[in-house]
Design a protein that fits this description.
125 residues, alpha+beta, three-stranded antiparallel beta sheet, two-stranded antiparallel ribbon, 7 strands, 28% helix, 30% strand, globular
């Protein structure tokens, strides 16, 4: 009997990203595997560390700003993320990673699996 070794995935960390329809269309165009480069006025890419915070941004900011808000969930190689200290952007659960715009391509190479939409918000009638 022979044993086959199964490649193991590195440990991952779950991140969330609140986003609007334009950015989401670019993620879809990248086969749900990468975030688009930042625009000149966007010096950082900020995924967040908890779903509730992402929901609040998508619902309360993205919907009024762009007509829809989405919460995405994705996994990133934990060892790679160690280079980005957790930033507390408000209360104790308002936690983000601040990835410099120039690091987004490298960040994308460390996404494990696909980016998925887990919540969608639209204006309330």
């Amino acid at each position: 009997m022979t044993s086959q070794s199964v490649p193991t995935q590195p440990p991952t960390t779950t991140l969330w990203r609140p986003t609007g329809p334009e950015e989401l269309a670019l993620v879809e165009a990248a086969d749900w595997r990468a975030w688009p480069p930042r625009l000149p006025e966007q010096p950082i890419f900020y995924p967040v560390l908890n779903e509730d915070y992402a929901i609040r941004i998508a619902r309360d900011w993205n919907v009024p700003a762009s007509g829809a808000g989405y919460v995405t969930r994705f996994e990133v190689d934990t060892a790679f993320l160690a280079r980005y200290p957790v930033q507390q952007a408000g209360g104790r659960t308002i936690l983000e990673l601040w990835v410099p715009a120039e690091d987004v391509a490298e960040f994308n190479r460390h996404i494990v699996g696909r980016i998925e939409v887990v919540h969608e918000f639209r204006p309330q009638p």
